[in-house]
Each structure stands twice: as C-alpha cells, then as structure tokens.
C-alpha cells in the first residue's frame, strides 16, 4: 500500500490534487474558527457587555402610584359636576341648561384636543415655550418621565386639570355668551392657551423651571390652572360687557341673585371634595404617604379658614350671613393653597387660606367698582386668589420639604420662604412666574375674545338674551313648569312671552 501511495505521489496531477484538497480543508477550518471568534467577539466581549449593561432597562410601571394617580384623576374629573352645579346655582333660571350643556360639551371637546395636541404642547419635550412630540399620543413611552406612572394614567390626570381650567372661564361669561362662542373660545383655551402657557411652568423643559437661582414652583396649579382660567374669564367678561339690566353698586344697583343657592352650595362642596384629587394627587406617588397626608390636611385647613374669613369679613356690611360669599370664600382658600400645599405647614395653610378669603371679597368689590359683570366670581376666586396663592409660597414655605418622588419624599433640597429665613429669592421667582403667565394669558385672551366679537359669534343677540339662553339656544329650560309648561315639556313658541316676563322680573 505504501508503494502504491509513492507511485501516485510521483505523478504530478496527484500531487496537485493533494495540495488542493489539503488547502481547502485548512481554509475551511480557519473559516470556521474565524466565524466562532467573530460571534464570540460580538456577543461576549467585555466592551459590548458594558454597553448592554448601560442600556436602560424596560420602563417599570409602578402599580401603586399609577392607581393612586388614576383615582386622583377620577376625583378631579368629578369636579366638573361641582362646577356645573355652582355656576348653574349662581346663574338665573333661564340659563341653567346653557351652563350645564356648556360644561358637558367643554369636557368632551377638551378630551379630544388634549389627545390630539394639547398634551403634546404642554408635557412633551421641546423648548422652553412649547413641546412638540407625542401628537395624537403617538410614540409615547410606557411611563411619563421618571414618575413610574403609566403614561396614559398621567395623561388622564392632566386632562382633568385642563378641563378644569377651561370650565373656570365660563363662570364669568354666564347669561350672554352664544353657544357657538362658548365652543370657539373653549377650543382656543383647551387647544392652545392653557397647554402652551402651561408648558412654561410644568413642561419638562419649561423656561420657568430653569430660571436661576431658584426655579418657579407651582405644585398643583394655583398659577397654571387657576390664574390662567381666572384671567381668561376676566378678559371674556370685559369684552362681552355686562348682562342686559345689570346695575352696579356705583349706579345704585347690585349683583343679580342666583336662582338656586342650594345647588350652588352643593356644587361648591363637590369641588372641595374633588380638590382632594387635585392637590394630594399631584404628588403622583402613593409612596410619599407623609406628603399626601400633609397636602390633604393643608388643603382642608385653607378651605376652612377661607370660608370663615369671607363670611365674617362681609357680615358688618349688611348684617347678614351671606351663603354665596362663604362658598366662594372656601373656594378661594382652596385655590390659594393649590400652589404651596406641599411645602407649607398647617399653620401656614391656615394663614394663607384666611387671607385668600379677604382677597376674594375685595376682588368682588373691585369687579363691581370697575363695572365688570362676573356672575359666579370666577376672577376673584381663581384669578386674584391664584396669584395670591402663588406668591404665598415665597412667604410661607417652611423649609422642611423638598419634592415628592416615586419611592417617597426627597427632602434634600427643601423649599424655604421669607417668613422662615429663606430670603426673597423664592418670592422673586414666584413673582416672575406669576407675572409672566398672567400677562401672557390676559393679553392672548383679549385678542381671542375681540376676534370672536368682531366675527359676531361671541355674544348672543339682545332678543336671545332677553328671551333666555335656554329657550333661545337650546329650545327648552331646566324648569318647564315654572315657564308655563305644566306637562313638563315646552316649545320655543309657547314660552317666549313667559321668558320675556321672567327676564323683566330678574332684571
């Protein structure tokens, strides 16, 4: 066999075949080794292992904090019932349906707009003035920022806030705004004014959060929700003008009484109840149990102080215990505590709430003196007391509390006001933030309302106002029996004379 192999080796063709075959085998082995080495380098080298470790893990949705935020959103949403009751009670009989339907439609419209672009403008990343991601809730992460709260739960919570701001506006415009005008200004408020200006303070990169040396603070919205809503309502009331027949105190008259104080008072208490979602819910963290409890207690004390102070402050004027003023008094306390509720002590909450009750009373007096018709007191409660509450943080922040977080409180950088030795830096930051948002809101709102007025869509016709918005705009009233429809139903034609008579009595 050995001789046979040697004979073949002497042949040139055989030697060529042998080396070709051997070379192919060696090349195959080397190729296999190279593939194995390459796979090893790609999957198991220390450098790439470090990169894998550095990559962010999938977002962890904290179920407890998410459910806390969802429940708070439900409470804030229920405030719409309170607003509808409050405004309907302070309005006249003939515009009750209008007030209620405006609240319902505004809630629906705000939801669609906040889904389409409102949330993107306000809470997405962009620049200091506007966000420009997540339109139509596309491309959103699992959780919002570092909260651990599921993204859509956070969206729901903030939608309820946006709806609140827009509903505040309608209170000062009751009784003479056309329903088309309601829809158009609600579109402007929910779709543009609130989310864009709100981004300045609550957006992830809003310019008011980056001012130095101390950033602007607004825990739950004395400025972002209430001041914006209050000053939009002021602009609307100015451009609209007073209701037909409204005589002010300077002219020997007074405010037109609301038709049902029972409904108004119950609506106010519903709002108080909803505020326990508004303020404690803004922690976004059930893990911060101490913070939630403190915020809820401060909210309660400020409301109590505001209601009592307003009632007692007004009593010497006319020697009666005024229910409407008392309701607006505790609402004033609630508005004022909304900004500083996390950072003040119970004593501070009591003091600033008491001052808010007085601020509200003088706000009503100022509107009356300026001959601005605000049937519900939207600007005195939300505008004036929103500004006061924002500034009060610079005075009463007690220097013990920092920020709420997904795993509990972080008090490493406490917020301290002037009364507790913190100097004036925080007060100045609050003043800058409040002034900037107030001026921008009022200026843009005046332009919007004047544009609607020039288009002829803002105010209802004189005939329609005298007839009553319920009949003129909606074809029926909330109390048909009182309007001559004994069967509980009525037509427009059968009630015009009764509506006109009721208007004359009311005015």
Verbal overview:
With 507 residues, the protein is mainly alpha-helical. It has one domain: Ammonium transporter AmtB like domains (Ammonium transporter fold, Orthogonal Bundle). The protein is 66% helix and 1% strand. The protein has 17 helices and two strands. The protein has a two-stranded antiparallel sheet. Helix 7 runs antiparallel to helix 8, helix 7 packs antiparallel against helix 14 and helix 8 packs parallel to helix 14.
Overview features:
507 residues; mainly alpha; Ammonium transporter fold; two-stranded antiparallel sheet; 17 helices; 2 strands; 66% helix; globular; disordered C terminus
Task: Give a brief rundown of this model.
The chain is mainly α and 507 residues long.
What is the topological layout?
Blueprint: H1 2-9, H2 12-44, H3 46-54, H4 63-90, H5 96-123, H6 151-170, H7 179-202, H8 222-240, H9 261-278, H10 289-318, H11 323-338, H12 346-369, H13 378-396, E1 403-405, E2 408-410, H14 425-454, H15 462-467, H16 469-474, H17 492-506
Antiparallel strand pairs: 1-2
Helix pairs in contact: 4-5, 4-6, 4-9, 5-6, 5-7, 6-7, 6-8, 7-8, 7-14, 8-13, 8-14, 9-11, 10-11, 10-12, 11-12, 11-13, 12-13, 13-14
């Amino acid at each position: 066999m050995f001789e046979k192999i040697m004979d073949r080796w002497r042949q040139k063709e055989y030697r060529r075949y042998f080396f070709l075959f051997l070379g192919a085998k060696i090349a195959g082995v080397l190729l296999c080794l190279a593939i194995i080495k390459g796979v090893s380098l790609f999957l198991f080298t220390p450098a790439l292992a470090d990169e894998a470790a550095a990559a962010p893990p999938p977002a962890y949705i904290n179920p407890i904090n998410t459910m806390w935020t969802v429940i708070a959103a439900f409470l804030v949403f229920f405030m719409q019932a309170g607003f509808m009751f409050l405004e309907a009670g302070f309005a006249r009989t003939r515009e009750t349906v209008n007030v209620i339907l405006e609240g319902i439609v505004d809630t629906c419209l705000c939801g669609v707009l906040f889904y389409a672009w409102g949330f993107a403008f306000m809470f997405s990343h962009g620049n200091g003035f506007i966000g420009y991601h997540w339109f139509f809730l596309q491309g959103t992460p699992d959780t919002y920022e570092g909260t651990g709260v599921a993204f859509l739960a956070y969206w729901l919570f903030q939608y309820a806030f946006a709806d609140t701001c827009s509903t505040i506006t309608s209170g000062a415009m009751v009784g003479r705004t056309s329903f088309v005008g309601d829809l158009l200004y609600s579109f402007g408020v929910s779709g543009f004014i609130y989310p864009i200006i709100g981004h300045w303070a609550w957006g992830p990169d809003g310019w008011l959060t980056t001012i130095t040396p101390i950033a602007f603070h607004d825990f739950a919205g004395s400025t972002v929700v209430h001041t914006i809503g209050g000053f939009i309502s002021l602009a609307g009331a100015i451009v609209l003008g007073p209701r037909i027949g409204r005589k002010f105190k300077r002219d020997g008259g007074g405010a037109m009484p609301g038709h049902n104080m029972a409904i108004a008072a119950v609506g106010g208490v519903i709002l108080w109840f909803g505020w326990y979602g508004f303020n404690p819910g803004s922690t976004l963290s059930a893990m911060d149990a101490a913070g939630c409890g403190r915020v809820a207690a401060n909210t309660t004390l400020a409301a109590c102080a505001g209601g009592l102070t307003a009632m007692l402050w007004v009593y010497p004027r006319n020697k009666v215990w005024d229910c409407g003023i008392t309701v607006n008094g505790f609402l004033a306390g609630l508005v004022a505590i909304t900004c500083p509720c996390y950072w003040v002590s119970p004593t501070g909450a009591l003091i600033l709430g008491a001052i808010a009750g007085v601020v509200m009373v003088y706000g009503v007096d100022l509107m009356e003196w300026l001959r601005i018709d605000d049937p519900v007191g939207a600007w005195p409660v939300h505008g004036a007391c929103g500004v006061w509450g924002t500034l009060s943080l610079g005075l009463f922040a007690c220097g013990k509390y920092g920020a709420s977080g997904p795993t509990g409180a972080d008090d490493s950088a406490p917020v301290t006001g002037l009364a507790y030795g913190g100097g004036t830096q925080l007060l100045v930051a609050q003043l800058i933030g409040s002034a900037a948002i107030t001026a921008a809101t009022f200026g843009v709102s005046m332009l919007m309302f004047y544009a609607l007025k020039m288009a002829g869509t803002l105010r209802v016709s004189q005939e329609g106002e005298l007839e009553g918005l319920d009949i003129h705009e909606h074809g029926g009233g909330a109390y048909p029996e009182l309007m001559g429809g004994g069967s509980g139903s009525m037509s427009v034609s059968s009630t015009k004379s009764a509506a006109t008579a009721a208007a004359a009595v009311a005015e």
